[in-house]
Give the backbone structure.
Amino acid sequence: MQLAKRYPFSASHRLHSPQLSGEENARVFGKCNNPFGHGHNYMLEVAVKGRADAGSGMVVSRKTLDSFVERHVISKLDHANLNCDVAELQGVVPTTENLALLVENWLNKAWDDELGARGVKLARVRIEETARNSFEVRD
């Protein structure tokens, strides 16, 4: 059984690699290389898998999952400048691919202590950057 929940957040970033010249950055990242950055209204989807509890009939309480994701992800990303405000993205091009990997890492770090005993596993992290593209990390 899988449960997937969606969490909106807003953040800004600039796609720029110091390893590339100005021209190469403009060619590779296009308008996303704007020196002043740009923002997105992202949608994070977290899917968990496990057996439904016999008593509650749920894989995990939605309130428990919401609180977990809020503390470990949304509170760190919502209204952040990904280039400046997120320590783990310092020196990394903050593409949504890298962001999805970071979110998966944050969730996995805290998972066993908070949700592992419930027999629930992280199945998928998906981040929708725009209506036309999304990025997914699966277990």
